[in-house]
Amino acid sequence: MVPPGLLDTLARVPDPRDRRGVRFQLATLLAVGVCAMTCAGHNSLASIAEWGRRCDQEILARLGCPFEPFAGRFRAPGERTLRDAFAKVDPSALATAGFARLAQLAPWTVQACNPDGTMEREQRRAHRAFAPIRSGGHSRGAGRSLWTASACAAPSAPMAVACS
């Protein structure tokens, strides 16, 4: 569940927190966030913390969570810990580390090919699906444009995001 090299990549992000009272490494908190967002689809800090609480002990150990000797378990970070750490992280440093990790994972040559190995052909008629439709039958464009209605009618249309 935890990709190899994720903690090493996230450890490059500088920790802006005060060294006193730090119970979780910043790389651990970021890795919990990455894993909760990518594998489970959680997008809020409360749901990321909930994912961490429900995680197996093996996964928490691989994420670098500290071991609590009295409870005999690895501790998951709480919502407040995640909120404080994520608020202080430098976004540009995090983006740099994230793009460096993606560059490691991406193949060097990207070619558009079909599952049978043949090269994919360019789709030339795709632009017609988003052409404005005029009502009224006049060639000069008299009448109301149905561009917005046709784009928002299909939820899978790429322009549906702009309408909502």
Can you offer a commentary on this structure?
This protein is mostly helical and 164 residues long. Helices cover 43% and strands 2% of the residues. It has a two-stranded antiparallel ribbon with strand order 1-2. The two termini are 34 Å apart.
Brief characterization of the structure:
The chain is mostly helical and 164 residues long. It has helices at residues 6-10, 26-39, 45-54, 57-62, 79-88, 91-105, 147-153, 160-163, and strands spanning 67-68, 73-74. The chain is globular and about 60 Å long.
Per-chain topology:
Layout (H helix, E strand, L loop, with lengths): L5 H5 L15 H14 L5 H10 L2 H6 L4 E2 L4 E2 L4 H10 L2 H15 L41 H7 L6 H4 L1
Antiparallel strand pairs: 1-2
